[in-house]
Structure formats: C-alpha cells, structure tokens
Amino acid sequence: MGASQNRAFYEHFLTQQETQQLLFIHRALAVNGYRPHVRSLTLFDVVLAEPRLLPPLVHVRQLVLDAVEEHFDKPCQVFVEHTSLISWGPGASIGWHHDSNREYLAQRHFSAVLYLNSSDVDFSGGTFCFQSGSGPLRIQPSAGMLLLYTADASNVHQVEPVTAGERATLTMWFTLEQEHQEDKKVLAALSSPAMRGSGLPPSMYQQTPDGPDIRLGPLQQLGVELVSQHQQQHQHEPQQQQHEQQQQQHEQQLQEQPPAGSQQEQQQQAQEQQQQYALLAAGQSSCAEIASFSSVQQAALVLYMLQWKLCPHKHPPLLVHGNGAAGHTQQHKQTSGGSAAVPMQSQLQQPHPQQQQLEQPVCQAHIPCGCYTDAKLLGRARQLLQEYLAAAGEQLEQLLPVWQQLGALVAPAASEQHHMHVLADRC
Ligand SMILES: O=C(O)CCC(=O)C(=O)O
Ligand SMILES: [Fe+2]
User: Fold this and answer.
1) ipTM higher than 0.95?
2) 159, 162, 172, 174, best to mutate for ligand 1 pocket (most atoms within 8 Å of CB)
C-alpha cells in the first residue's frame, strides 16, 4: 500500500475473481453514460435491473468503505454517497479537477477508484495523474488496484484519454453527512411516484433507526433478517412475555446503576437500550432470537461477521474457543498462516467480576479471509469489538452465548473447519 495523509493506494485490493464479478455485472447491465464514450451502471441501476447481481457489488462496496474509514481515520463516520461501475472507451478523458468542485458536489469528502482492468493489457492510455509541484504523479491502472483520495482541492487530478480498448472502474464517493448517503437516495428514487409499482420491496433492504439500509439486503439471502424488538413482539406474541421480562430486567439494571449525567442523558440511554434489534434466522417456525443489540453499532459487528459469508472465497469467520491466554492465541496465529486472532479479553480494561468466574472459555474471533490484509482486518475487527464490548459493559456475561450462537450461524460445521484452515493457510 502506498499512502500519504490525503491519499492512498492499495495494489491488490481485490482478487481476480472479485474484479471479474464486477466486470461481469458492468458488461451485463451498463448503459451509455453521462459523457461521450462512457458506459456506466449505478447501484440504483443494479437494484432496479437485476438485484440478484447485487451481492458481489455490495460486498466490494463495503470493503472500500472500510478502507476509506480506516485510511482517513473516521471509524463508523463515513457514508457511501455514490457507487458506479464505469467504463471508458477510446476518446474518453477528464481534465484537471477535484471531486467536490461544484456546489452540488460539496457533500463529497472522499473518493475511491477501484480499477477493474489494466492499462497496456486491456486498454491503452487512461493514465490517472495527480497534480503535484514537481510535475504530475502518474498512476497506471491495474486490475484490483484501489486509489483513495480526499475530494477537496488538495487532490487535483486528471485522466488522460483512453486510446484503445475499454478502461473499467468501480468509482465511489463518500460523505460524512448522513443525509447524503446513497442508500436513502436509492430507496427514495425507487419509491417515487414516477417509478411503476410500489417501490423497492422491503425484503431488499432493512430498516434501522438510522433509516433504511440497502447494504443489509443481502442478509435475506443468508436466511437471516434483522428486526426491531418491537416488530418481533408483534410478530411473535408467544415470545412477548420473555421480552417483557428482559425489559423489566433492563429497567431494574438501569435503576441500580449509579446516576450518570443528567436525567435527560439517562432517559436517552434508556431509550437507546430499548431500541433493540434481534437477528432472526429466517424460515424457522419459531423465530430464534440470536442476539439483541442496543445500537446499530453493535448490530454492525454481527453484520460484519455475516458479510464474510458473502466473501467470494467462502471464508466465513471462525469463532474459536480458547482460554484467552496469549499462548493459545500465538499458537493459533502460527497454524493459520497470515490470519490473526483477536483476543477479546485483552480489549477489556477491567474484566467484569462475573467474567473472571466464568468456567467457560472466552470466545475469540478468528477471521481468516484473505480479502483483507491483516492490518485492515484487525483494525476494523478490533474497533468493532471494542465498541461492542464497551456497550455491552455490565451485560458482558450475555456476550458469550451471543457469540456462540453467532458462531453456529456463520461458522462452518465442525467437519468443514479443517478445510477452512487449509484455505486460510493459502491466503
Ligand atoms: O477513473 C479515474 O481514474 C478517475 C475518474 C475521475 O477523476 C472522476 O470521475 O472524477
Ligand atoms: Fe475525479
């Protein structure tokens, strides 16, 4: 990876298989684009034209978002503003500009260009250049390479004309302003009166307190759905009693806690705690509640885990159980090649007394997928785990069963685990 504060590039961000999938989607669906010699396909187009092709695109979109948040050090603060698969034919070019140089583009804070094919192999020309004091910094596109830069005037750039062949990219912009996020725009457009039918079926997105989120749509394909506890109570009356008990326990816990901040803060906290999610295994006669969450942040951890199931290499996360001792972790690192274990216990500054008494082993997340570099993966997983654990706080003892159940959901059957390790070794 090459990097400076306001730009970075990763040479092999995607595998050949991933780039091929995106190229296929582009070739299957792209239409003549917004400029001469350009063909383009937005996320909106894919949702509309062939939603079955969404998962590989949504998967890569999430990888790029993770990379942006990590490189620009904005964990969980960045929203995708626009996603397009774009190809340029002979004659296409763009002169010197930066990506937020119009009033209607002011919400764009970061840009990402993911190259899906290579110059001098698939096309000629099409060199990307950053303006710099000592003369242009020239970047030759190569398949799987990701370029990140801030969209402001510190990154004036151009693309030289393509002279032969077709130059293909996944181009994305990102915003820090939630109201400009793509998911909401796509859903609003799809639900507008101008569209025939009644808009995008809710099975293709999920509602969260932050609004509809199209990224969660693929959960359906995993046989899992995320519902609010409120919905669940109404859909599954027999479970109501149990939930009422849980809620009472929560309220009791809240009352027992020493006063923290103003009454208003406490009320807000209580409200947040009530905004719970349950992750349900779909298609079961009685919905199996797998976990409940007090914030989207925590749900994100679970989704993050589940997204691994969409990995084209089929490397889901493995949840391994150990005693949390360094020796175990080390041994695991050695046997699993480049992948890494995340010792959850070490994230805790003050282990909960009940946790110390636990006879049960502490869960460790072991995520072997080679799509991520270890550093990126670890950074993201650590951050999410930290947030999860901080939020779990007093409820830590509830965490273990949650992870165990999640493990059953996302990890392969025991017989497949050896195979997974073999795959992980090759990453
Ligand atoms: O395709 C590229 O390499 C960059 C394109 C670009 O600068 C833009 O679309 O604003
Ligand atoms: Fe640009």
Assistant:
1) yes
2) 159
